[in-house]
Each structure stands twice: as structure tokens, then as C-alpha cells.
Amino acid sequence: MRRTIGVLGLGVFGRTVVKELTDEPVDIITIDKDKTITQRIESYVLEAVIGDFTDMELIKSVGIAQCETVIIATASSLESSVIATLNCKNLGIKNIIVKVKNKRHREIMEQLGATEVIRPEYAAGLKLSKQLRNPNIRDVIDLEDDVSIVEFTPPKKWFGKSIKELDLRSEFGLNIIGIKSAQTNMINYNLAVDAPLDATDILVAIGNKDDIEEFDYVED
After folding, report:
1. What's the CATH code, domain 124-217?
2. Phi/psi zone of residue 50: left (φ > 0), alpha (ψ -120 to 50 degrees), beta?
3. Model's pTM, two decimal places?
4. Torsions phi, psi of 84, nearest 5?
5. Residue 132 has pLDDT above 60, yes or no
6. N or C: which end of the chain has fewer CB within 10 A?
């Protein structure tokens, strides 16, 4: 079943979201004031509208009320984000995702009832800093305030040993939930805990954020 998603604002973030959703079973409606940018995105979406996404009459007329999810994809104007969020709430939009640029704006949007508030530049900076601190870290996803998922290349001293033998839960507080193949990029969640690890394995683990950020588990 196809879903309809609204993207309000077509900056770099908004355009990236649209293009990444192209292969998914979704219909996308976009609104942005910039005619040139809107025309460039037309081939990716169901409807690309040139206009002010804070205009309630406009967003109703183009079908935003029928969207399951609306992404307010620009943080350049707090006033615009506030108005757009309130308009979406009044239209009964189920999921409202808002991009913000700082912690204070995040608090405001949460108080207004946004379903999810994101700071992509901040998240990207955190992710990069973690990877730079240890090149074995491939990805870190924060789920909650104190829980994260990490993808990492096992240190050489683990090669030839099994997950069961390493006992990472007791040693580092990590629960291995999958192994990704470096060759296929596919994650196998049916763990063979007795199988020896090698250089083609990428471990996927969940654990306490503090334990994960210690990085002791990737030291050779």
C-alpha cells in the first residue's frame, strides 16, 4: 500500500530525503518558494508545489492533509517551522518530523507536539567524531538517551574466535545482534555463536551508550 509523505522545504536536507525515498512505495508532495529548485525535483515526486508552506490554504489545497507523514525539512526560520508544525497538527497529520538547528528549538517543537525532532548536522558531527576517534567504528545509531547500536570491525586479536568464546556481554556490556558481511553488506541476524570471526565480518551490537563510547572493544 502506497503512503503519501509531505516534504516542506527543499534545502539540501529536504532534497536528499526526497531522492532517497524515490525507490520506496510512497507518493511525495513537496512545497518550496524557490521555483528553480522545485522544478529540479519534479521528476522525483507526485506533486512539486511552488509556494509558502506556512500558508494553511495552500497546504490544504495540494493535499497535505492526506499525508501520513509530513517532514518540515528546513530550520532556517523558527517562525516558519512553528507555523508549519501547528498547521500540520490542526490538519490531523499523524507523524510530524521537524528539522531544527539547536537544542532550544528542539524543545519548542517538542512542546508544540512534533512527533520527532531531528538535528541532522549535529547527529552527523557526532557520528563523524566517533569514527575519527577509532577507525574500526563504522556506524553508531543512538536509540534512546542511554542506548545505542554500533557497527564495528572486530580487532585482529578476535579473528579465529567465536562470539560465544569472546563473551562480549560480560567483558564489554555489548549484545551482538547481527553480523554484516563486508562483501554483500547484508546483516545476518541468525547468529552462529560458535563460528570463528574473520576480517570480512562486521559486528552489529546494542548496548549502553557509555560502554559503546569507551571503544575498548575495538582496541587491537
Report:
1. 3.30.70.1450
2. beta
3. 0.62
4. -65, -40
5. no
6. N
